[in-house]
Design a protein that fits this description.
- The chain has helices at about 20-30, 45-50, 75-90, 105-115, 130-135, 155, 185, 210-220, 235-245, 260-265, 285-290, 325-335, 335-355, 355-370, 390, and strands at about 5-10, 35-40, 55-60, 95-100, 120-125, 145, 165, 195-200, 225-230, 255, 270-275, 295-300, 315.
- With about 400 residues, it is of the alpha/beta class.
- The chain folds into two domains: about 5-170 and about 355-390, Rossmann fold (3-Layer(aba) Sandwich); about 185-355, Rossmann fold (3-Layer(aba) Sandwich), CATH 3.40.50.
- The strands form two sheets. A seven-stranded parallel sheet has the order 3-2-1-4-5-6-7, sandwiched between helices. Strands 10-9-8-11-12-13 form a six-stranded parallel sheet, with helices on both faces.
- Strand 2 (about 35-40), helix 2 (about 45-50) and strand 3 (about 55-60) form a beta-alpha-beta unit.
- Helix 11 packs across helix 13 (about 335-355).
- It is elongated.
- Its EC number is 2.4.-.-.
């Protein structure tokens, strides 16, 4: 038996490099190449280009989904073509295991794995809503990694075997670039005495930047030196700018767009990190903020409480409206010893418990265990109907979208 195992990573996502793409890139970087050879198949041109430039085999294809959110919604021929492509990739590259990075490729790769009789692991980076759990066939995956316990609950409540679920938190990598450290306050013409909050993420409704802006408005008279730096871009950019203008906060809210050196911004003299997320599967950027030594304010939602403990490694607020955010900011601003304590504790926890090395080792151990098994779990097509249990039991179902 050959020593190195060939792993086919199948990634579905938008044409950018963000959360789940970064997790995959970091896994490639730290994967033990004496044990594993990575191969990538993706619909993301950005990810394909990035990986190809690092001498990793990558194939770019268009991925069509049955019952997806965009047209065509019933491209059976396209689905069949993806099955054939998957079979060819596996046979041509002598693949030993399939790692599906996001839920969407389950729709064809579960069948491919079954036909080839090789193990398949699906890694979920978000909580999929009921329609997607059914249409993508998540219950047909023989093994699932969830980046937080929170996003495993719907699947387990519907009957997915708990012994086939692995909770492996994302690994956080200190990714400080070699460029000169930023001085954020000087860059934005702020005073050293100003208190600067930073938030990072796509400017979309789910990230809740509008709630942070509203909170800053409510605090402006009591805290005249409070500022917010917004790092990121997205479909709500113009809408958020209009909100800032309407609230006369142009001198307090600073949009700096997408940044390739986010770690430098977070370690560049800002005073705290804040998340306004309405939902959050894990909160990768919170870990990055912790490595920058920043005190963290975040909602008590999704996977965040699995590594942010209230008044120990951060301040957690009730995820409802703006008032809890206002109170959390006030608590932090009024207590300098707490600021130092939270920043120190968060750094210590993330730098020891959420390292990329621990994350990679856990995933590699799972690979070896599944490859060593003499047979793959038997899956029935009826398993794909398990999400109907959520309808029967009236279980509320929230979550993300494809990818």
């Amino acid at each position: 038996m050959k020593n190195k195992k060939n792993i086919l990573f199948v990634h579905y996502g938008d044409n950018w490099i963000r959360g789940s793409e970064m997790c995959l890139i970091r896994l490639f970087k730290h994967l033990d190449r004496d044990l594993f050879v990575p191969h990538l198949w993706t619909n993301s041109q950005a990810l394909h280009t990035h990986v190809s430039e690092r001498d990793i085999f990558s194939q770019h294809s268009e991925f069509s989904l049955l019952a997806g959110w965009s047209r065509p919604r019933c491209d059976v021929n396209g689905w069949y073509h993806l099955v054939q492509q998957g079979l060819n990739l596996i046979r041509r590259n002598n693949i030993d295991l399939i790692h599906v990075n996001s839920g969407a490729p389950c729709q064809w790769m579960c069948l491919v794995a079954k036909l080839c009789n090789i193990p398949l692991i699906t890694q979920l980076h978000s909580d999929y809503q009921l329609r997607d759990r059914m249409s993508l066939g998540l219950h047909l995956s023989p093994n699932i990694i969830c980046v937080s316990k929170a996003i495993s609950l719907n699947l387990i409540n519907e009957g997915y075997p708990q012994n086939r679920v692995s909770i492996i938190h994302n690994g956080i990598e200190a990714d400080i670039s070699k460029s000169a450290p930023l001085n954020v306050k000087a860059k934005l013409n702020l005073k050293e005495s100003d208190f600067v909050l930073a938030t990072v993420g796509s400017l979309i409704e789910r990230k809740g930047v509008d709630r942070i802006i509203s909170a800053v408005k409510l605090l402006e008279h009591h805290y005249p030196d409070l500022h917010l730096v917004v790092i990121g871009d997205g479909e709500q950019r113009d809408e958020l700018a209009q909100q800032v203008a309407k609230l006369h906060l142009m001198n307090r809210i600073h949009f700096v767009g997408e940044q390739t050196n986010v770690a430098n911004w977070l370690s560049g003299g800002v005073d705290a990190f804040i998340s306004g997320a309405r939902t959050e599967a894990f909160g990768l950027v919170l870990g990055e903020a912790a490595l920058a030594g920043l005190p963290i304010i975040a909602p008590s939602t999704g996977g965040i409480p699995e590594f942010i403990t209230h008044n120990d490694t951060g301040i957690l607020y009730e995820n409802s409206g703006v008032a809890p955010i206002v109170h959390a900011i006030e608590t932090l601003l009024d207590d300098q010893p707490l600021q130092k304590k939270l920043g120190t504790n968060a750094f210590n926890y993330v730098s020891t418990q959420l390292t990329i090395e621990r994350n990679t080792q856990a995933i590699q151990s799972l690979y070896l265990a599944k490859i060593a098994q003499s047979s793959v779990p038997k899956i029935s097509l009826l398993d794909g109907l398990k999400p109907l249990k959520s309808i029967i039991n009236h279980v509320p179902s929230t979550g993300g979208h494809h990818g």
